[in-house]
Amino acid sequence: MDLVTLSRLQFALTTIYHWLFVPLTLGMGWFVAFMQTRYYQTGDETWHKMSKFWGKLFLINFAIGVVTGIVQEFQFGMNWSEYSRYVGDIFGAPLAIEALLAFFMESTFLGIWVFGEGRVPQKVHLASIWLVAIGSNLSALWILLANGWMQHPVGYVINEANGRAELVNFFALISNPRGWIFFWHTISDGVLMAAMMLIAVSGYHIFRKQNVDLFKRSFVIGSVVGLIAGVLVFLGGHTMGQYMYETQPMKFAAIEAHWETSQPADFSIITIGDLSGKREVWSWRMPAVLSFLACNNFDCKVTGVYDIQAEYEAAYGPGDYIPLMVVTYWTFRIMMTFGFIMMGITAYFVWANLRGDITKAKWMKWTPALLILPYLANASGWILTEMGRQPWIVQGLLKVQDGVSPNLTTVDLLISLIGYTVVYGSLAVAMVKLMLKYAKAGPDAAMHESVDVAPTLVGADD
Amino acid sequence: MSYEFLQTLWFILIAVLWIGFFFLEGFDFGVGMLLPFLGKKDEERRAIINSIGSVWDGNEVWLLTAGGATFAAFPHWYATMFSGFYLALFLLLVGLILRGISFEYRSKDAAPAWRNRFDWMIAIGSFMSALLLGAAFANLARGVPINADMMFTGNLFTLLNPYGLLGGLTTVAIFLLHGANFLGLKLEGELRERVNAFAKKLWVVTTVLYIALGVFTYAAGFWARGIVNPGIVPIAAVTVLLVAGYFINQKMEGWSFIMVALNIVLTQVTFFSMTFPNVMLSTTNPAYSLTIYNASSSQYTLTVMSIVALIFVPIVLAYQGWTYYMFRKRISSDKKELVY
Fold first, then answer.
1. How high is the pLDDT of residue A29?
2. B90: number of CA atoms within 13 Å, CB side?
């Protein structure tokens, strides 16, 4: 494999992996902060136990997000040095601000939260978990503003003298609608992710009749908040689709397998393409729905992939400007389908809870399996966003192949790629082991500042 | 503010971030390396980890901020250094990942084998990080092959020269000593005695290595190749290290910690002034060196970033300082008082 492919593969690996853990951090922080606030207000021990139990799972997950985040900060320079030179004047600023504003905040106050209970005043301890939640979500904002610039560059000029993009309007950068819509989509997605975790783990315990009161409370919170978050994710996604239609028409057409320009445009429910991913073999379509997705009415014109390709060739010179459609098309459908299932299922849980006692429901047994949905939907969403921008690394300005570090060899890349795979794989094994153990052990174990979760082991010498 | 002033300001700010990182995370690395050797029992190891438990993550953010600030203020420096030191930085990342995850996971299972494995990962990860950071900085002082396109033309073995290795080992030694002094301040009882005894031996090794590095720097002519002569600063750095030896012998833990901390700060000041205004010296041709002038961002970006830094750096310093105050108490290795 060549350098560009290996570099892309490694970026995909490290970034998708990082993103498996971050949404839960983003969402769960709010839940734990809420639970601890209720405890602070009411003195109800159940809230206390809830904040400790979900807090433990939050921490096990948080640790992986932190350590894999360092790689994110370094790999632009390490693997994409030409990209870094080209965009550093603009892209570096949100990254530096993210570290200064958000990383310091979340890491410092997390330290206070973990080690401070009983040592710092209760109010300070409570404030620290809120600051952790705010800090981690702030970091999401800054990185999404940075990513938003790659999707839709604003506030810049190309400096002819040194051939790079330079910032001329900081306020355009930080008010880039692309970044903010994405932030909306992403943080509500984090809340949905955490809500699904609440539902899945609570269901496990409710089915086994363990701590039913505590877990029913968690389950209901998860369902109600999950439903609201699910609707927000959908609305954010829909808004983003329309923005994408205006600013990244190729990505929009590619995720819909929309080949030919049409008015009104029909929506593909299932399309089978040929192996090249550039020709359609068979499809089943809903009339006019794509027009609605693009511009909220059933009659507007949606430009197709072929026309945009011709347009780009005229503007940027000969080349292939069509993303790998089999990926964009199917990741979009996975994300969307799973998103709708989550909305439907949380709505059902809310309704079932209003109607009667959900703790005896037969379906409770299957709730842990739901956890697969948010993970796959999250990963699909990012693959779609980044693959849909191909061949560009910065939309319309710089291509991926021109951003790579030219001094690296394929041997360098193979060493690091294999290294990351081994390290990340081992981390995942340890993390899943601990998550399962702590999730199954329940709230009493989480209450102990103990050597192990099983209460019998507390105080045991080892 | 003039462009040149802003470029100098950001050079100083990045130097401050690195100094902060070496000063703070320096003792974290030292504590990490000492962990399996000093802590005989599980509670002792936990007490050692808890001495930095609430702060190590915040300290590491200094590194991330230094990286981010370099990207924002000197994109070419960021691009050349990070792609040039590729495998070294990859190993540094592995080291940081191993130790970071181990702090959080080592106590989450009671099996002695599990804990022992993570304790060693903390030690090895800390050692790798200290060694590689030291070697990287030594190579920056020495100069590395860079061509006319600002591209690094060496490989991992280019960095493994005697000066780089000596720089790495010296950094490991200083961080060990710094960590031992920090533990002397934070622990109590027998463990405190043990760490103080350890510090005495470490001081000898550190001083020898440090002086060797200084002599090498002079003899090889890596000295004052920019427009600033560090002058008295390195002499002061050696002096405080020697004075630290006296305080370590007198078991005056507060003073020995301050002296070694000062040594780290002054060493970094020496490093950053030795090459200024160069940020990466080219051994291929001095004209190809990256400087604060040819590697920097635009004046507009530097201005915006200056305003952001002016507002937020004091806030960060205030709350980070406040955490140290909150957790200033000594840590007992008595099981009842330990936080896991």
1. 96
2. 22
* Residue at A311 is within a domain: yes
Subunit contact B101:A450, Cβ cutoff 8 A: no
Residue A204: inside a domain: yes
Q: Look up the domain containing A373 and give its range.
A: 177-408
For residue A220, tell me if it sits in a domain: yes
The verdict on residue A186 lying in a domain is: yes
B3 touches chain A (CB under 8 A): no
Q: What is the mean pLDDT of residues A360-387?
A: 93
pLDDT band of residue B225 (cuts 50, 70, 90) is: confident
pLDDT one-digit tens code per residue, B81-104: 999 999 999 999 999 999 999 998
Which of A61, A81, A95, A98 is the mutation pick for testing B, counting most B CBs within 10 A? A81
Domain count, chain A: 1
Domain positions in chain B are: 3-337
